[in-house]
Design goal:
Number of helices: 15
Pfam family, one: Pyridoxal_deC
Strand order of the largest sheet: 1-7-6-5-4-2-3
Distance between the termini: 58 Å
Order of helices and strands: HHHHHEHHEHEHEHEEHEHHEEHEEH
Shape: globular
CATH topology of the largest domain: Aspartate Aminotransferase, domain 2
Largest sheet: 7 strands, mixed
CATH architecture of the largest domain: 3-Layer(aba) Sandwich
Oligomer: single chain
Strand content: 5-15%
Number of domains: 2
Organism: Streptomyces vulcanius
Structural class: alpha/beta
Keywords: Decarboxylase, Lyase, Pyridoxal phosphate
Family: Belongs to the group II decarboxylase family.
Cofactor: pyridoxal 5'-phosphate
Helix content: 40-55%
Length: about 450
């Protein structure tokens, strides 16, 4: 054994303690750490020859790289939709690395059974029935891709084509209809060979809405003359957290043939609260569902879950036929359900957080974040130089400059706020207007943080 490896093995408990002490120091200062680091990264170094051992690596990281890491796990990082990592989920994530299980299947470990238990808990948490099965994936993009891949196979089933064998070209053009799809949907269609250009926008409701007009959707479906299609419904749009009428969309399947995929990446968490669960009424009717867990479940990157009613089609798409893997039968191994063969035990941090805080704890995070978003929205309206572009429906505040909101002016505001070290916001365009969006999904965020964000915007 290499001397550095042997020395690290002999001192392994002490090394873990060193890493623990360093991480604890970083987390304890997270609330005051600059939310975004704007400086230039160090120049690339040469590959080490003999190596320094783990203690040396930790020291070098602490000196060279740690100062430039963002405070994205902290309470005032409001860019994208970024959760933090609850204490329990961090503990679970550390154990995930320590056990280093390959959750491709059940052979020799209970890890896959733990993932199935966690998926079942999440299914219940989001109000889905036992008809939905699921698996962990890396994030919303892969979750959407898996759901749409199963939908593509369903289209083939309706047309008498085995897409998994014949390829997407055997289908001919596939129509994918949506009102306000996330950009990851177009990316998924590109990966799946359906094509970005097959994503057909459907008019949304009037009156500053992003939710699809169900009558317009029905007209688009009727125009297909019975050809099967895929409908991507949105449970929480990225700009204003608007929700499609999932129940009404599902009812259209009585007259038109389509696969209903619901992108509920973060909006699905509305199901946790009786104040907001009406927004996801009808989610259980979906054929496939995307939920991103490193958003509002506040588990470490990367973690998401996908659900579907058609596991048989999922296996047809993703099964791996090899003598050493066996064929899927009964309860299929996870390697037959997702793009990966080798799979990290992403379920363990979620399992830890669900056991530690339960439904009630995660409901509190959702409701507190929503209340804080409303508070920021009120504060934005009170600032003379800013204006809201949409009502604060759940956890995102979409706003812009009060006068002449150019892309350059809005970017300058975002840069100025980031330069204070107090907050980080991401740009968007809503209704043709350049804007900023503040997304609340971190378990640590408080009213005091909202006050600091407002002060940074008013500086």
């Amino acid at each position: 054994m290499h001397p550095a490896l042997a020395a690290d093995l002999a001192r392994f408990p002490a090394l873990l303690q060193s890493a623990r002490d360093f991480a604890a120091g970083e987390v304890s200062g997270l609330a005051e750490r600059p939310v975004a680091h704007r400086g230039a990264a160090p120049d690339p170094a040469v590959l080490p020859g003999s190596g320094t051992g783990a203690e040396g690596a930790l020291a070098r990281f602490a000196e060279r790289w740690a100062p430039g890491f963002s405070g994205s796990a902290g309470p005032r990082y409001l860019g994208f939709v970024t959760g933090g990592a609850t204490p329990a989920s961090v503990a679970g994530d550390w154990l995930t690395a320590a056990y280093d299980q390959n959750v491709s299947g059940d052979a020799g470990s209970w890890a896959a059974a733990l993932e199935r238990e966690t998926v079942a808990w999440l299914r219940e948490l989001f109000g889905l029935g036992e008809a939905h099965s699921g698996a962990f994936v890396t994030g919303a993009t892969v979750s959407n891709t898996v759901g749409l891949a199963i939908g593509r196979e369903w289209v083939g089933e309706r047309l008498g084509v085995d897409v998994s064998r014949a390829g997407a070209s055997a289908l001919g053009p596939v129509d994918v209809l949506s009102g306000s799809p996330h950009s990851s949907v177009a990316k998924a269609l590109s990966v799946l060979g359906i094509g970005r250009d097959r994503l057909r926008p459907v008019p949304v409701l009037p009156g500053n809405r992003e939710a699809v007009d169900v009558d317009a959707l029905e007209a688009a479906l009727a125009a297909l003359d019975g050809r099967p299609a895929i409908v991507v419904a949105n449970a929480g749009t990225v700009n204003t957290v608007d929700f499609d009428d999932l129940r009404a969309i599902a009812a259209l399947r009585e007259r038109y043939g389509f696969w209903l995929h619901v992108d509920a990446a973060f909006g699905g968490f509305a199901a946790l609260s009786p104040v907001y669960d009406r927004l996801v009424d009808g989610l259980d009717a979906a054929d496939s569902v995307c939920v991103d867990l490193h958003k509002w479940l506040n588990v470490p990157y990367d973690a998401a879950v996908q659900f579907t009613r058609r596991r048989d089609l999922q296996v047809r798409v993703f099964h791996n036929a090899s003598p050493y893997l066996g064929l899927p039968s009964g309860e299929p191994d996870f390697l037959h359900l997702t793009p990966e063969n080798s799979r990290r035990l992403r379920a363990l941090p979620a399992w830890f957080s669900l056991v530690a805080y339960g439904r009630a704890g995660h409901r509190e995070i959702v409701e507190r974040n929503a209340a804080l978003a409303a508070q920021l929205g009120e504060g934005v309206e009170a600032l003379a130089g800013l204006r809201l572009l949409a009502p604060v429906r759940l956890n995102v505040v979409c706003f812009t400059l009060a006068d002449d909101p150019t892309r350059e002016g809005v970017s300058a505001l975002a840069e100025a706020a980031a330069a204070t070290g107090e907050t980080f916001l991401t740009p968007t365009v809503y209704g043709g207007v350049p804007a900023l969006r503040a997304a609340f999904s971190n378990w640590r965020t408080s009213e005091a943080d909202v006050a600091r964000v407002l002060a940074a915007l008013d500086a």
